[in-house]
Amino acid sequence: MEKEIKNEEVNEEIVNEEQETAADVKADATEAPEETEKKELTPEEKIAELEKQIEDLKNQQLYKVAEFDNFRKRVMQEKTELIKNGGSKVITTLLPIVDDLERAQQNMDKYEDVEAVKEGLTLIIDKFFKLLAQEGLKKMDVVGQPFDADLHEAIAMVPGQPDDQKGKVMDCMMAGYTLNDKVIRYAKVAVAE
User: Fold this and answer.
1) Under CATH, which number does the domain 138-193 receive?
2) Is residue 175 a contact partner of residue 187, using CB atoms and an 8 Å limit?
3) Closest Cα partner for 157 from 177, 173, 178, 140?
4) Which sequence spans correspond to the domains of the chain?
5) Which one of 3, 108, 171, 188 has the largest count of C-beta atoms within 10 Å of its C-beta?
């Protein structure tokens, strides 16, 4: 019995809440037309408001155009600076090698041992190529490799080669180089026919 009474109370509460919600919706609906009636503008007021919006949009557009123009100028200036001073890092890293070459040149007349001069020059060249490798430069190893037009430039054909050598690079006349995996100089090669 108590359960039935509790269920009836709960049902009454739900019905009361639904009635309150319906009353709120009716009240909102009755208020809305009054508000819209108050907000209705005359045609002149509408035109004035629209003209103001147009003027605001024009100003916003002008600001955006000016902002973009400033951005473009700044990017162009930064790009110019980068191009102008971009090589300074590489040149700075090359200076120790220039110093080594100058020392070798100064001491060349003092040394009578040609082998010591050759060894010193070899050390300088090795140091130079290590520095270039740190900057991403790689020398292509092409002899014995199949000819690839994306890496090699054929300047001679070598006839009379065995079948297993045909289409392969037989000799390299000028070394090719890649910088960060992009070819910056093609290897000039002789290819077996």
Assistant:
1) 2.30.22.10
2) yes
3) 173
4) 138-193
5) 188
Instruction: Give the span between the Cα atoms of 164 and 43, in whole angstroms.
Output: 91
CA angle 103, 87, 135 (to 5 degrees): 75
**38 has pLDDT over 60:** no
Question: In this structure, what DSSP letter does residue 147 have?
Answer: P
Q: How many CA atoms lie within 13 A of 164 on its CB side?
A: 1
Statement: the pTM of the whole predicted model exceeds 0.70 = no
Does pLDDT of 33 surpass 50?
no
Residue 58, pLDDT > 80, answer yes
What average pLDDT does range 170-174 have in this prediction? Answer: 90
Q: Tokens at residue 142, please?
A: 């092409």
Residues 43-68: b if buried by 16+ CB within 10 A, e if exposed = eeeeeeeeeeeeeeeeeeeeeeeeee
